[in-house]
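Why does residue order matter? Because the sequence determines the fold. Keep that principle in mind as you read this record.
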Amino acid sequence: MSNLNIWVRASRTVLVVLVLSMMVSCGFVRGSSRGGGSGTLTVSGAPASVVGTFVADGDETEHRRKGANATVQWAESRDANDPHSETVEVEFDRTTNQIVQLTMGSSDGFVFAVWSCGGPAYGKFIVCSGATLDRTGGILRLANTALSVGAGTGSTSQITLNGTLTFKPF
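Structure:
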């Protein structure tokens, strides 16, 4: 096996370790809970590898509390032999349920794409219009919600999300 093949296989593990390290350093792991989520989103405008849908794996849904905010993250189930992965994450104010940021990420090994929108008080993103969150009901509803492409990612177009994702209420 060449060094490149070893690096490609190891890069997935390295990426997971880096993300987990960032989560620990930012305090996300504290107060987290896994499982209990589901749902499907229609994804328009994304690269072909996204295949037009996001289907949440209930075992991979996680919510975390950090200060006044909370985050819920959904991930698609993955095939160990396929480098493609997708996640959707929403951060919101736990008191008002106002969405701070909604993000979708897609990875195909070496190519990463991230799209985001945010609440009106958070001017660095386009506003998450059509997105509503009910924390006590455990529901995120998206209706023609546009997300702008992040700088330096492998995509150049905005995407639109439609559908419902659920999570264990908290």
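The two ends are 47 Å apart (CA to CA).
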